[in-house]
């Protein structure tokens, strides 16, 4: 057995799993010199959700991050996670976009492309793999590991053979949910090695507490590379600890040859960095064995929890968790990984909250049932398909075969703002978000979301027993959703409060005119102060509450993507009137009755909640 190699995930999957992908490039670069000295097989540093987070939250150019990391890591391979035909977005792109994206990623510094497909449909991986090989880079074909009646070792071995036939350089077992167990890992690695003779890389989240054992047995079976994460961002929903595995293999035939003291220096740096991002910490540092039964990844649980909390339905979490396996079975047992985890999870929430299974069906589920994401691993429930899409024809070809070349069209749509091909590809991944980013860059107004100061963390840990910490405020006809995140120390007259206003983090300064302090344990109330505040939040319109059958509402909070009707237009019950984005999925909202549209209370980009009327229809 040759030396076992290590891919460290601290620059991508580690902080994606534990602090919502919020680490900024400025906090990565100072430690790159030491990371580059370690001798990792590769550092995963790009792809996955990092591209989205850079543009959406950090207001960084993701391509600029890649270039800077490439310069800072001259001796280490940079690894990225690529969703096959989906690239880094949530739809299938035309082949010319896939080819251009891969080439530009290679040009800017990516050495290893881990290519996967959420459906394990290898047809959706072929063009990406071919593009990687054309660019002269390492193509790693990934199988999305999951557990179901149709997923077994022969299934994954057959898929590995297909990937080998495409010319991949290695095989990755991508256990995104932490479902892989040690002895299954041993058998799976052994079988893939025998079937393909390719290097095998194991990747297993630590959610269920099994990942270190999984890697150990995988190594014994012949795994060549293991994914783990520096201890500052390891365990829980992240991955097994790099230092621990290096120590476990030290002195054996599998010795990694990596320096523990150097890894610990790196850990000390990242522990300090992590403190800056306390507001984004996930409640995911503990072992959660529920996933072994529910098969729901920890990150997916966090998203569902936030969605339910936003609409006051957190008490329905158990119902949603019970519904997810039923939806997954109806859809033919897709692995729960982006984007299928969002597709299944969002539909489960809708099934629970709308009072009927598939009473409302997301556009993504409809596209899935029409074959537009690829071939389902198992048998799809025909009743559900008919309910959702009627008698529409199901695609059996590779979905991207039906998408004409689109790169020139995308370039034309954004040419006034795009300064490079990379800008065009940013726009291609997220059109609305990308356009806004490029507009703000041109105006010099790119501003990352604020990082709340450390003293706000201390305040947040105190019990909130004297006042609500989440409420709505209506001022001059505008309604704001306020959530208190913490409070700083009072100055001579002002006290900072750290809040989210309509989901945007803000610091609000209150000038206290009359305040009565209370001591812990006292039941005496604090007199409310009055004063001035400074805040800028995205205001939502004040909208009426539902009052009759023609009121169109949403079952989930989200933002309006499209308004499909006009005032005065006739609609039939079931016609699509709005498209809303929630949990990164689009959901078409249908007319509840037939009649005439008499009022529209929303516009594209508006944030909406379930207690608001979005459109009013006068019934026939």
Describe this structure in words.
Residues 463-467 and 514-540 have low confidence and may be disordered. This protein has 620 residues and is α/β, with parallel strands linked by helices. The protein is globular and about 80 Å long. It is built from 22 helices and 21 strands. The protein has an 8-stranded parallel beta barrel with strand order 1-2-3-4-5-6-7-8, surrounded by 6 helices. 44% of the residues are buried.
Give the topology, please.
Elements (H helix, E strand, L loop, with lengths): L4 E4 L1 H9 L6 H4 L3 H7 L3 E6 L2 H9 L3 H11 L5 E5 L12 H14 L3 E4 L10 H9 L3 E7 L8 H14 L3 E6 L6 H15 L3 E5 L6 H11 L3 E4 L13 H8 L10 H16 L15 H4 L3 H13 L6 H14 L9 H14 L9 H7 L12 H8 L17 H8 L6 H9 L1 H13 L10 H7 L9 E6 L2 E10 L6 E8 L2 E8 L28 E2 L9 E2 L5 E6 L6 E2 L4 E7 L2 E6 L4 E6 L6 E2 L6 E5 L1
Parallel strand pairs: 1-2, 1-8, 2-3, 3-4, 4-5, 5-6, 6-7, 7-8
Antiparallel strand pairs: 9-10, 10-11, 10-13, 11-12, 14-21, 15-17, 15-20, 16-19, 17-18, 19-21
Helix pairs in contact: 3-12, 6-7, 6-20, 8-9, 9-10, 15-16, 19-20, 20-21
**Average pLDDT taken over every residue:** 87
Question: Tell me about the biggest sheet?
Answer: 8 strands, parallel, barrel
Helix content range of the residues, please? 25-40%
Number of DSSP helical runs: 22
Q: Low-confidence runs (pLDDT<50, min 5 residues)?
A: 463-467, 514-540
Q: In angstroms, what separates the terminal alpha carbons?
A: 76 Å
Strand order of the largest sheet: 1-2-3-4-5-6-7-8
Total beta strand runs? 21
**Cα-based radius of gyration, to the nearest Å:** 25 Å
Question: Structural class, please?
Answer: alpha/beta
Shape: globular
Strand content: 15-25%
């Amino acid at each position: 057995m040759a030396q076992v190699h290590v891919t460290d995930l601290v620059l991508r999957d580690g902080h994606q799993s534990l602090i919502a992908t919020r680490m900024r490039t400025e906090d990565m670069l100072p430690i790159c010199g030491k990371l580059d000295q370690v001798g990792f097989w590769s550092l995963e540093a790009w792809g996955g959700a990092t591209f989205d987070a850079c543009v959406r939250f950090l207001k960084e150019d993701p391509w600029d991050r890649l270039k800077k990391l490439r310069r800072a890591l001259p001796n280490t391979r940079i690894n990225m996670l690529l969703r096959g035909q989906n690239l880094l977005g949530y739809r299938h792109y035309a082949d010319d976009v896939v080819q251009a994206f891969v080439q530009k990623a290679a040009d800017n510094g990516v050495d290893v492309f881990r290519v996967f497909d959420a459906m394990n449909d290898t047809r959706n991986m072929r063009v990406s793999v071919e593009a990687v090989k054309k660019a002269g880079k390492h193509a790693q074909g990934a199988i999305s590991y999951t557990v179901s009646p149709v997923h077994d070792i022969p299934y994954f071995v057959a898929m590995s053979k297909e990937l080998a036939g495409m010319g991949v350089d290695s095989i990755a077992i991508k256990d995104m949910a932490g479902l892989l167990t040690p002895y299954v890992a041993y058998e799976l690695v052994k079988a893939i090695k025998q079937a393909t003779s390719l290097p095998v890389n194991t990747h297993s989240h630590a959610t269920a507490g099994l990942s270190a054992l999984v890697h150990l047995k995988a190594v014994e079976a012949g795994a060549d590379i293991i994914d783990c994460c520096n201890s500052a961002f390891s365990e829980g929903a992240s991955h097994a600890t790099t230092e621990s595995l290096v120590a476990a293999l030290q002195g054996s035939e599998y010795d990694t040859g990596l320096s523990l003291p150097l890894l610990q220096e790196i850990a000390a740096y990242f522990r300090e960095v992590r403190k800056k991002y306390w507001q984004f910490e996930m409640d995911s540092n503990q072992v959660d064995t529920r996933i072994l039964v529910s098969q729901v990844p920890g990150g997916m649980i966090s998203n569902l929890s936030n969605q339910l909390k936003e609409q006051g339905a957190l008490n329905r979490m158990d119902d949603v968790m019970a519904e997810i396996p039923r939806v997954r079975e109806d859809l033919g047992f897709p692995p729960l990984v982006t984007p299928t985890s969002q597709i299944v999870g969002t539909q489960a929430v809708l099934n629970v909250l709308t009072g009927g299974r598939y009473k409302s069906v997301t556009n993504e589920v409809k596209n899935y049932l029409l074959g537009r994401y690829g071939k389902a691993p198992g048998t799809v429930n025909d009743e559900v398909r008919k309910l959702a899409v009627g008698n529409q024809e199901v695609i059996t070809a590779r979905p991207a075969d039906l998408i004409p070349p689109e790169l020139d069209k995308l370039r034309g749509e954004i040419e006034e703002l795009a300064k490079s091909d990379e800008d065009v590809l940013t726009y291609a991944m997220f059109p609305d978000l990308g356009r806004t980013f490029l507009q703000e860059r041109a105006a010099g107004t790119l501003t990352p979301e604020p990082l709340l100061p450390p003293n706000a963390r201390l305040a947040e840990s105190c019990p909130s027993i004297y006042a609500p910490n989440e409420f709505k405020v209506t001022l001059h006809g505008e309604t704001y959703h306020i959530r208190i995140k913490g409070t700083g120390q009072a100055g001579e007259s002002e006290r900072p409060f750290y809040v989210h206003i309509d989901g945007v983090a803000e610091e609000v300064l209150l000038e206290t005119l009359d305040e009565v302090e209370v001591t812990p344990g006292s039941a005496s109330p604090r007199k409310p102060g009055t004063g001035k505040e400074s805040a800028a939040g995205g205001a939502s319109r004040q909208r009426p509450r539902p009052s009759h059958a023609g009121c169109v509402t949403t079952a989930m909070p989200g933002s309006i993507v499209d308004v499909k009707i006009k005032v005065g237009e006739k609609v039939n019950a079931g016609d699509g009137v709005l498209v809303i984005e929630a949990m990164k999925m689009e959901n078409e909202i249908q007319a509840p009755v037939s009649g005439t549209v008499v009022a529209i209370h929303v516009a594209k980009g508006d944030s909406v909640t379930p207690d608001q009327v979005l459109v009013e229809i006068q019934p026939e």
